[in-house]
């Protein structure tokens, strides 16, 4: 038989849920890190309007981490400079992140030697960037005990790094590159390329002489005209097929 509903208990549960959600929202706002409210973190620099969401991932070596302005660092993102905390890494930055960079939830940027991320790069969730790799030269020594190899990493401006991609030591990624989800990148990637696979290879590239090769299969998106208001866009989205056709006829008639 169905149990009788306890209205009072149900009301208390909903009220408790609202309190928990409100409290967690307050914790997230209060715990986020900005230039004005850095908390315990002492970054080498952190630009205007940059925010690290709470809860943070692992962060250490922050005096050698320089963050640009208007960056969004999502929850549980790890940013490290050096092999371990409390090292003196010298006078120069180890990890540089440009302006307008977005690092997706759960991503890791491990900079044991220099890692540079250009401005306006967008990372999906769980991207892994590292300047260090295990070595296995000695077949008799456990791999985790062998001294790692380190090579600088550079990601050019304007790149899109897909979910779960891995950027390995020594990678040099050019400007406006798309790295497909799950790709494993090493070596040099030219400007204006799309790479995919493990190991990643160039599957499409743009040049001034040939354009995109192989050609794009869909037309480029057309941005809204200047001056269009959000209200007009919402009204357009609500139009059915017949309304769109009428609008097109009106525009054609001038």
UniProtKB/TrEMBL annotation:
Keyword terms: Acyltransferase, Repeat, Transferase
Keyword Acyltransferase: yes
GO cellular component, one term: cytosol
Pfam family, one: Hexapep
Region (Disordered) location: 207-229
Comp. bias intervals (Pro residues): 216-227
A molecular function GO annotation: O-acyltransferase activity
Domain of life: Bacteria
Family: Belongs to the transferase hexapeptide repeat family.
PANTHER family in alphabetical order: ACETYLTRANSFERASE C18B11.09C-RELATED, SIALIC ACID SYNTHASE-RELATED
Record protein name field: Acyltransferase
Species for this entry: Streptomyces diastatochromogenes
Biological classification of the source: Bacteria, Bacillati, Actinomycetota, Actinomycetes, Kitasatosporales
